[in-house]
Every structure is written in structure tokens, then in C-alpha cells.
From TrEMBL:
Transferase among keywords: yes
Protein name: 15-cis-phytoene synthase
Keyword Transferase found: yes
UniProt organism field: Stylosanthes scabra
EC numbers for this chain: 2.5.1.32
Top EC class, one word: transferase
Catalytic activity annotation: 2 (2E,6E,10E)-geranylgeranyl diphosphate = 15-cis-phytoene + 2 diphosphate
PANTHER family to which the protein is assigned, alphabetical: BIFUNCTIONAL LYCOPENE CYCLASE/PHYTOENE SYNTHASE
CDD domains per the UniProt record, alphabetical: Trans_IPPS_HH (cd00683)
InterPro entries noted in UniProt: Isoprenoid_synthase_dom_sf, Squ/phyt_synthse, Squalene/phytoene_synthase_CS, Trans_IPPS_bact-type, Trans_IPPS_HH
Keyword terms, alphabetized: Carotenoid biosynthesis, Isoprene biosynthesis, Transferase
Gene3D superfamilies (alphabetical): Farnesyl Diphosphate Synthase (1.10.600.10)
């Protein structure tokens, strides 16, 4: 399955939209305990659970040897990004020096810079309608910055999932990464780059998540199977979790939040992983027709399933049991993400809640289709989307617990 780096559930069909709210979720759990917790719960949930227990055992073994698990590798990026947030003033001073080098056409001519942001907004409005609607509640500065990040993510995804994907080579991705370096050094190539360059100069956004997303694109060029969940987790981080690390600094954290910065970024990862796992489960049939299987090979084997079973696309009891376990794992990540959404700045919560509530309903749709994700595409109907938006708004501004108490009092 091609990478999905923007997770808004809009009416648009591009896979990219299946990833930018992946980011803005938060939890109060520590990253090292979060991922292992997912595996531990999953291990007791279904007939495919024994494979997850195996993954947990592998993680424990990895902790005792020099090699590191994917969770540990990703957590280093989390710590680095969180440190930037804590040092925001120093970071802004460093970045302001770099932005001074941008071509006069983009810096001195505010009309051109505003036009660049406006064009980013138009792209968002066209390809991610729900996401775009949610950004209207943000401050103008944050709204424009999120647009710029969205567009860069979309352009990156299009390299391997767009109309010219068959012509993309590793060399092309290397050039795209060099261009990214130039953007962070205040040397934009076009108007979209200019908007992003201006954005990263004003917010404590680290370049590593952007580079990691490009690495996810490289992975799609060379890899079509994943031996275990540890490998799949890293892929999900590359193509979805990275967006959270890019976006939380712009979305902002509630000034009254008592949660640590690290825990908030951990939850952003949780939502990204949840969204990407949902994409994978939804698109099993579509990916199989392209010769790709984004399911842990060891867990398939433990469930008594083979690649031929995937390619034949028959819904059996073995498949149903396997899917129940996979869906439960995705829901655990959604639950962890949901716990921390309230830690975001109040003006940024609604689009996050909207995307979370809408996207997790895709899992419900897979179940409603009797786990037939080979020939039936799970989706959330327009009426359900419309009904979810007021609920998301209420959760964003009342909080889930207060909203629950109000309902119970009726």
C-alpha cells in the first residue's frame, strides 16, 4: 500500500489525506510503555494474538542487545522534537537568521509570501475538505503554517503514489531531500517551498520528521512485505507518525496542560500509527492487486494464513479471527491518542477530534462488511460524517468527560 501521510477523512480519495490528523493526537503514556502495551493487550485479544506475544518477546530480547526496537528509534526523534519545543525562543532566533537568506522576492515582498500561503490553502481546500474546514478555527498564523506542512506532505506522497510514481527513483528522492535541506536553510525553490521555509523559521519544527517521511517513500520503492509488527510500526511512523511531530509545534499545546511535552508528542505518534494501521486494513485488497501485503508476516503465519490466501481474497473464519486482532490493535492506538487530544491548544482541538472520530469509524465499517476488505471498500458515509462533526466540536470545547457527564444527567 502506498504511503498515507495525511489522515483527514474528507471526501477526497487521495491516500495522502489519510494522514495529517494523524499527528495531532496526544496521550499521557510514555512511548516505551505505550507500544509495548499495545502489543501486550493485542497478545490476549484473538487467535492471532500469539504472534503479537512473539513480537513483545522479540522487543524484550532486543532491549538486552545492542540492536534497538523501532519504538526506541522513534522515541529518540520524539525527545529531539520535544527539546526543540522547550527551547522555542532559542530555536526561533536560530531560524530567523536562516530566513534572512531567503530570496528578496519571498521575504521582502509580503504579497508573494501571502500568495504562497493562499495557494497552499487552496490545495488543502481541494484535496482535504474536512481538514481545511477545521483549520478555519485556528489563528491565521497557525492556519497558514499547517497548510504549508500539509502541502509538503502531499507533494512528498505524490512522488511514490501519484501519476508519475512509476518514474520515481531513489535518486529523485535524494534530490527531494536536498531540496528539503535548502528549505530549512531559507533557500526555497518555489512558492510552496517558500511557505514552508517561512513556517519552519517561526515554529520549533525539526527537520528529522520530514527526512523520515522521505525515508518512508524510499521504503515503498524497495519493500512490499513486513516480517513483523516492529517493522510495520517503523513504516507507519515514517509515513504517518512523522506528521504529528511536524504539526504539534504549530497546532500548539494548551498553556494549562500539566502533561509533559514528550507525552504529547507520544500521543501524536499514537494517532498516526492508528490511522496508518486503519489505512492498511481498509486497503488489503487494493494493495494485494498491486502485489503488496502490509500485514505482519509472522502474525499471518500464526493465524494459519498465507500470501495466497490474501491474493485469493476469500473471507474465512481464519481471516475473520485475524482481522479482529488487527482491528483491536488499531483501536488501542486510537484510545491512547484520544486521551491526550485535550492537551492541544483549544483552537486546534476540533479538527483533531473530527478526524479521530471519523477515521476510527472505518474500522466499524470493516466489521460491518464481515471483514471483507478484499472486494469491499470500507468508508464512512456522508451522513455519518456530518453527524460526527458536532460531536467532535463538543468534545473539543467541553472535553469528553464533561460531555459524558452531561449526557448521563439527562
Amino acid at each position: 500500500m502506498a504511503s498515507c501521510v495525511v489522515v483527514w477523512v474528507s471526501s477526497c480519495g487521495s491516500k495522502l489525506e489519510n494522514t495529517i490528523s494523524s499527528y495531532f493526537s496526544l496521550t499521557t503514556h510514555h512511548q516505551r510503555s505505550v507500544s509495548y502495551h499495545h502489543q501486550k493487550v493485542f497478545a490476549s485479544s484473538s487467535s492471532s494474538s500469539s504472534s503479537s506475544a512473539s513480537a513483545l518477546s522479540s522487543a524484550a530480547v532486543a532491549a538486552s542487545v545492542p540492536s534497538r526496537t523501532s519504538e526506541e528509534k522513534v522515541y529518540e526523534v520524539v525527545l529531539k522534537q520535544a527539546a526543540l519545543v522547550k527551547q522555542q525562543q532559542q530555536q526561533q532566533r536560530r531560524r530567523s537568521a536562516a530566513i534572512d537568506e531567503i530570496d528578496d522576492d519571498f521575504v521582502n515582498n509580503l504579497d508573494l509570501l501571502n500568495a504562497a500561503y493562499e495557494r497552499c490553502g487552496q490545495v488543502c481546500a481541494e484535496y482535504a475538505k474536512t481538514f481545511y474546514l477545521g483549520t478555519q478555527l485556528m489563528t491565521e498564523e497557525r492556519r497558514k503554517a499547517i497548510w504549508a506542512i500539509y502541502v509538503w506532505c502531499r507533494r512528498t506522497d505524490e512522488l511514490v503514489d501519484g501519476p508519475n510514481a512509476s518514474h520515481i527513483t531513489p535518486t529523485a528522492l535524494d534530490r527531494w531531500e536536498q531540496r528539503l535541506n535548502d528549505v530549512f536553510q531559507g533557500r526555497p525553490y518555489d512558492m510552496f517551498d517558500a511557505a514552508l521555509s517561512h513556517t519552519v523559521s517561526n515554529y520549533p519544527v525539526d527537520i528529522q520528521p520530514f527526512k523520515d517521511m522521505i525515508e518512508g517513500m524510499r521504503m515503498d520503492l524497495r519493500k512490499s512485505r513486513y516480517n513483523n509488527f516492529d517493522e510495520l510500526y517503523l513504516y507507519c511512523y515514517y509515513v504517518a507518525g512523522t506528521v504529528g511531530l511536524m504539526s504539534v509545534p504549530v497546532m500548539g499545546i494548551d498553556p494549562h496542560s500539566k502533561s509533559s511535552t514528550e507525552s504529547i508528542y507520544n500521543a501524536a505518534l499514537a494517532l498516526g500509527i492508528a490511522n496508518q494501521l486503519t489505512n492498511i486494513l481498509r486497503d488489503v485488497g487494493e494493495d494485494a492487486r498491486r502485489g503488496r501485503i502490509y500485514l505482519p508476516q509472522d502474525e499471518l503465519a500464526k493465524a494459519g494464513l498465507s500470501e495466497e490466501d490474501i491474493f485469493n481474497g476469500k473471507v474465512t473464519d481464519k481471516w475473520r479471527n485475524f482481522m479482529r486482532g488487527q482491528i483491536k490493535r488499531a483501536r488501542i492506538f486510537f484510545d491512547d491518542a484520544e486521551k491526550g487530544v485535550s492537551e492541544l491548544n483549544s483552537a486546534s482541538r476540533w479538527p483533531v477530534w473530527a478526524s479521530l472520530l471519523l477515521y476510527r469509524q472505518i474500522l466499524d465499517s470493516i466489521e460491518a462488511n464481515d471483514y471483507n476488505n478484499f472486494t469491499k471498500r470500507a468508508y464512512v458515509g456522508q451522513s455519518k460524517k456530518l453527524l460526527s462533526l458536532p460531536a467532535a466540536y463538543a468534545k473539543a470545547f467541553l472535553g469528553p468527560q464533561k460531555l459524558t457527564n452531561m449526557i448521563m444527567m439527562r
